[in-house]
Amino acid sequence: MIVHIFYQTPIPTYLHRSGIFKKCVESALKKQTAHPIEVNVIFVNEKEILRVNKQYLNHCYVTDVISFNNERPLFLPKGEPWGFGDIFVCYQVARKNAPSFGHTILEEMMMYVTHGALHLSGMDDHQPQERAEMDRRAEKIIQKLLKNK
Q1: Within a 10 A sphere around the Cβ of 42, how many other Cβ atoms?
Q2: H/E element holding 7?
Q3: What is the pLDDT of residues 5-50, one digit of tens each?
Q4: What range does the domain containing 113 cover?
């Protein structure tokens, strides 16, 4: 699995933790690690996440994370890596929300990255019980990574 991290909005240098963000994605997508896939994590500002939300989901509001699964191209040779998915994370929302959830900004960013990757794995959060399960799984992944860092 290849995970690319892009910082398209100013983020304090101490939060440029590409290695831990990559581990969040890898942990959430364990079942897909046998396949040659690529995932992009893109940190954006509120203006950009609003644009993505409007353009692709027809939602007119700022959100914390948006993920998109990509279909495997039919013509792709076997064993060739393909763009499995993209995760857009809004840094400003993470900064604002972290205190409400008792997280550091880094933990909140990790939560959004992991949540987006869990969506790529097939999990959904339309129902409260689904959302609670995603949150439990994300917290478990994050606590394990922070313990081992």
Answers
A1: 18
A2: strand 2-7
A3: 999 999 999 999 999 999 999 999 987 666 678 899 999 999 999 9
A4: 2-147
